[in-house]
Known about the structure:
The protein is of the alpha+beta class and 344 residues long. The chain contains 12 helices and 9 strands.
Amino acid sequence: MNNGPEVIERRILSVLGSAGFPRVTAIRKLAGDASNRSYYRCFVDGDRSYIAMVNAASDRAIVSEEIAAHSRGFEEMPFINIHRYLTQLGIRVPAIHYNDREEGILILDDLGDTLLGDIINRSGQSEELYEQAIDMMIRLQTREEHIPRWCYARLNRFDSRLYDFEFDHFVEYGIVKAGVELPHNVLSKLQKLFHRLSVLFERYSTVFVHRDYHSRNLLHFKGQLYTIDFQDALVGAPHYDLASLLRDAYVDLTDDFVERMVDHYLSGSPYASAGFKDIFTLLSIQRMLKAAGRFRYIKLVKGNDKFMRYVPGLLQRVKRLSLSYSSDPPLDIIAEAVDRIEGG
C-alpha cells in the first residue's frame, strides 16, 4: 500500500467524512518519534481540532512497538484495549472519538503539544508535576489478579526472558554494532550479571506496568497530566515505571530530586518494601542501557539518528549509578564496559 503523506491525508479525510465530523479545513503532520505510527492534527469548522493516529500495517497484526520477546494476534488494537482499561481506572487519557478498523485510523482528542519533558527542560524541575505523575502511576499499578482477563496487559509479563532480550539488545546495538570490542572476559562477566539481574527483576512482576512512562509520554493539558503511548502495557515490577519516569533519557533530574520523588512514591504506594530503592536503582540502570541500545537500533535500522544525542548522557548516568551502588550484586563490570564504550 502506498502510504505517502498525500495518500494518508486522503485516507484521513475519508474517515472524518464517513464519521460525520465537521468539514476539515487543514491537516498538519506532527513531528514523529521512533514509533511506526504517525500523527496528524486535523482542523475542522468550529475552531476545533482532533488528532488522527495512523497505524502501520504491522500494528493491525499487533506487533509490539516496544522490544518484545514475542508478539500475539489480538482481536483489537492494544491501544484501544488498554485505553478502555485505563478509562475504567479513571486515568487521564485522550478520548477516542472514532475508530476506523479498515483504515487503521483512530480519531483522538487534541490535547496540544506540551510534554512534561518540554516543561522541565524549559523551566526546571517541578515537584508538583512529578508528584502528579507519580500519583497517577500509583493508580495505574493494579495487582495482576485484579486486572480484568480481557485486558491485554495481563497476557504479557516482564519475565527473565524479556529482560534478557532487552539486555541482549543493548549488547548487540549498544556495544557490538557500535564498534566496541570488549575483551571476552569482560563481555562474559557482563552477560552473566545481566542474566542475574533479569532473574532478580522477574520476582517483582506483580502489577500493571505502562512500560514507557516517561516525560515524552505525559502531556500537560489545562493543568493536568495525561498519559499516552500505553499500548505495550504488561505485568511487571512496580519499580519499573518509576525508574522510567525518574531516570528518563530526555531529562536529567538531580539525584536529590529523584530521592525526594522516590520517597513521595513510597509514601503513597502499597508496594513500599525493604530494599525497594536498591531494585529501583538496578532497574534504572536496566532502563537506561535499554534506551541507549534502542536509540542506536533506531539509527541503524530505521535511519533516524535524532535520539543518539541522548546516549552519552545515559551512559554517564549508568556509570555513576553503577559505581555508587553499594549493595549486592556489585556493578563494577557495568562501569568498566561503559568506560570502554565511551573510549571506543
